[in-house]
Description:
Distance between the termini: 47 Å
Number of strands: 12
Strand order of the largest sheet: 2-1-3-4-5
CATH superfamily of the largest domain: Response regulator
Radius of gyration: 17 Å
Shape: globular
Structural class: alpha/beta
CATH topology of the largest domain: Rossmann fold
Strand content: 15-25%
Number of domains: 2
Number of helices: 8
Amino acid sequence: MDIIQIIEDDPDHASLLDRALREARYRTNVAHDGQIGLSDVKRLNPALVLLDVMLPGMDGHEVCRRLREDPQTQNIPIMMITALTSEDHRVTGLELGADDYITKPFSPREVISRVRAVLRRGRLPAASSEVYFDGDLELEGSGFIVSVRGKRVLLSGPEWWLLRRLAEQAGRVVTQEELILLLWGEDELIHQHELARSVQTLKRKLEGEAGLVGTIITVPGIGYLLARLTE
């Protein structure tokens, strides 16, 4: 069974997550602060980390950043959980490399559904390095890295798979339904705004770190397409 690392300082929420995951036949390990949780992840190499944002000492965003910077842990999926409802807080976690985000209060059913989706996506077959746009854009098959004209940018798992599918169909519209099925499977809890959020964080990284503007184009009500790279 997969090990799920829970990093949550609230005893009630930690207990709820622990019980729900064990009932779903996952093994769990619980840490109540960021530093211990970070050490546990390196020690146990879990299949997924459920990470609260508001933690004593080292907060969840810092834990996420350190996990993504460490080659030992950079590919472990991270699902952030928070009572903070601001869009800025959600985007911050996703830009740091989190794979998904759940806000409190949450239902155990929603958590299990999203955990399964993240783990399923993580088991998609890895690809070797693939080059698009005559070498301008390269998606590395390990580490969720995109290289744009030699500049490497770290993506989350959903961002990497999203960009890969758009690149495979470059210049053509990929429908919202196809992208949702790719990233989350047949999960009735996932809606189009979840996809739009993933596209937005991907665009921010490509624009902010690689200097690309207007590369991913939204076709309202239909889907998205990847255009030719521009200066």
